[in-house]
Known about the structure:
The protein is of the alpha+beta class. It contains 4 helices and 2 strands, in the order H-H-H-H-E-E. It has helices spanning 10-37, 41-48, 52-60, 67-76; strands at residues 103-111, 117-125. It has a two-stranded antiparallel sheet. The longest helix has 28 residues, at 10-37. The radius of gyration is 22 Å and the shape is elongated.
Amino acid sequence: MTSFQITIEPHKRAAGRFIGSVRRGLQRAYAEEKKKSGIKQTDIARALGVHRSVINRELTGLKDMTLGRVAELAFLLGKKAVISFPEMVPVAGQNIETSRPALRVKTDYAFEEKGEETPESDFEFNEAA
């Protein structure tokens, strides 16, 4: 039997978890507001000037949302969209990387001291101490 192991880079895992938690938060807010006031996806779509299927795809995860759309949906659901950036605290049993690698950025052009352009250069950015 063939077995496959999938490796997800820590930053991709963090992005996926963030997107999932935002989407679940919006789904929860929608369910609460629907129960309380009877709001429908059609009502939200009309307020935003889009088709109901757009709202459905965004809430179910079939379509990516911008931060602006997240804020619009939260507002229409009577909520305030808030994003915070707390420090990552590793807890036993979680797969949170405690050490992050240096950021490497590849650019198309670099400038030498003489001011001449040179193509394809690597820059390395290290975390400030």
